[in-house]
């Protein structure tokens, strides 16, 4: 796997909360990422798009809004990007995607 998420799962109170996770690049290439949610009503992610340097990591925040307990997931899609790419959305608008990692999120 070229990319991991640490920690590999997220748990929130149904009343809401936030957590910071890291997208970890295990390759020698620069990667762009996009985070998608199965529940946009109760979850917010910052940033949605970004870059991870070779062998590096980038933090992202998950915010859970108040709502009924439920199991959901975040999908982190990734693609290799050139070092001079400045727009993290560009590869995904062009249809690039090399893989994805699923982060289970649960509220109780």
TrEMBL record:
Pfam families: Motile_Sperm (PF00635). Residues 2-108 form the MSP domain. It comes from Panagrolaimus davidi. This is MSP domain-containing protein. InterPro entries: Ig-like_fold (IPR013783), MSP_dom (IPR000535), PapD-like_sf (IPR008962), Sperm-specific_class_P (IPR051774). It comes from the Eukaryota. Transmembrane segments: none annotated. PROSITE patterns: MSP (PS50202).
